[in-house]
## 1
Amino acid sequence: MFGELKKNVIDDSFTLGNDFTIPTKDDNEGKLKVVPDLNKPILEQIIISNESIVYQVWFNIYVFCCLFSSYFYAYIAAFELPQPGSFLFILDNVFEGIFYTSFFLCFIVDY
C-alpha cells in the first residue's frame, strides 16, 4: 500500500543508520548487555560520531592548540629552537602529537 511505513524504515530513521550494537536482556542479572553487531564490517564500526561528547572535548582542545601554537611557533622562529629536555621542547612535542592525532581523526569521524 502506498505510504505504508515498514519497521526497518522506522528503525533506520531513528538511528540514522548508525546502529552499532544490539541491546539484549541478560537473564542472570536483568541488566542490558551490549552485543556487537557482527553483520557490519569492522571499518564501519570504528567510525566516530562528531556529536560524541568525547570528540567535542577533543575538538575544543585541538582548537585551543591551533590558536596557541601560532604564538608558540612565532616565538621559536624569533628566538631559537628549544633545547632537548626543556619545557618548550616537551610542549612542541605535545602540540605535534595533538596535530597528528587530529589528522588521523579526520579519516574516521562521521560528518
## 2
Amino acid sequence: MCIPGQLFGSVWAIFTLSLLAYLLCVHLLFVYLKTAHHSVWLGPSLILNNSLMNNWKFLKFLLRRDYKLLRDRTLENRAGRTLTLFLINCGLFSLLLLLFEFSHFCQST
C-alpha cells in the first residue's frame, strides 16, 4: 500500500503555512525584544546579524526558556508561541522526509 501524492501535498501545504507563521512569530518576538528589552536585544545572546552562531543562540534562548528570567508575561507568550511553532515545524519536516522516502520506495517497487 503506497501513500498517495495528495497526502504529501497536503502535509507540504500545512508545513508551508506553519513555517510562515513561525517566521512571523520570530519577527514579532524580535520587535518586542527590541522595544521592551533593549539590553537583551543588544547583548551578545541575541541577534544583531544573521549567522549560524546567532541563530543557535536564539534557539538556545527559546529551548532553555531563558525568556522566563525576564519575568515579562507578553514575552513569555510570544516566545512560547514561537517555540511551539518551531517544534511543530520540526515534526512536519520530519514527516515530509518520511513521506518522500516512502513514496520514493513505492515507486521503485
